[in-house]
Amino acid sequence: AAGVQIPVDVMKRIDEALGDVVTRDPKIVSRSTPEHRFV
Prior knowledge:
The protein is an all-alpha fold and about 40 residues long.
């Protein structure tokens, strides 16, 4: 949610739990993200 502040230690634990599942490279993310969402 926009404006929600997540503590640094929580973000670190989330990153550790997700490992390599998360793609952080914006170029790769933009290629796999649809141009329009049907929501």
